[in-house]
Amino acid sequence: xxxxxxxxxxxxxxxxxxxxxxxxxxxxxxxxxxxxxxxxxxxxxxxxxxxxxxxxxxxxxxxxxxxxxxxxxxxxxxxxxxxxxxxxxxxxxxxxxxxxxxxxxxxxxxxxxxxxxxxxxxxxxxxxxxxxxxxxxxxxxxxxxxxxxxxxxxxxxxxxxxxxxxxxxxxxxxxxxxxxxxxxxxxxxxxxxxxxxxxxxxxxxxxxxxxxxxxxxxxxxxxxxxxxxxxxxxxxxxxxxxxxxxxxxxxxxxxxxxxxx
Length: 261
Ligand code: FPP
Hints:
alpha/beta, 6-stranded parallel beta sheet, two-stranded antiparallel sheet, 8 strands, binds farnesyl diphosphate
């Protein structure tokens, strides 16, 4: 057939980003994808550069992947940018990431708005530099009316700390007589998590080759499908995202139940 090569593959273009959707079931796209952006340091080291160069490149990759995910119909991307444990890193690296975040949240607002991206944050504000907190508030305010994909950035985030925070909030309401212990169910817990109102991730992606959860969204990933690749995050492309979604679409999600055959 003359036109086979031309029409075989459907392509969608977002700015200069090309997403090859061949083989994807567009009716079964994960609503929420969580990403542990790992491998920045190793990526930089492999090319004789300082680790922070990898973080800088990792921030660029995130922009590309958010746009690609949006074009595919993903509704939420939760990206792990800085964990409660990352404070243990050398102060120069911590400072670099804080400055990078601050710059990112200033420079990318226009692009977020041009692409209808709503920015949200999960994590504790305690210990974050004042300037980062201000930029976070600014980003929330400036993008709050956007109706496209939600970029949910995890900053100073830890899954255990999040659950503790929720437990404290619930205990306070019980102590003050505003909540009956018998009424505490999954929904009550979820309403007290940083992710309140967001759907649970359907798919968790971890580049960089390690097979760990690293304290990310512990409650929320109860039934998420996990996909990993040895590729370091700075080298992660829309094609990797499509591969992850293809793998997701090949899984049978049972949520603890059985599927009739
Ligand atoms: C893990 O790679 C990555 C981090 C701890 C930080 C992630 C930060 C970014 C992608 C940049 C900041 C994000 C934004 C949105 C501005 P690693 O350092 O653990 O890499 P390694 O495992 O190779 O050492």
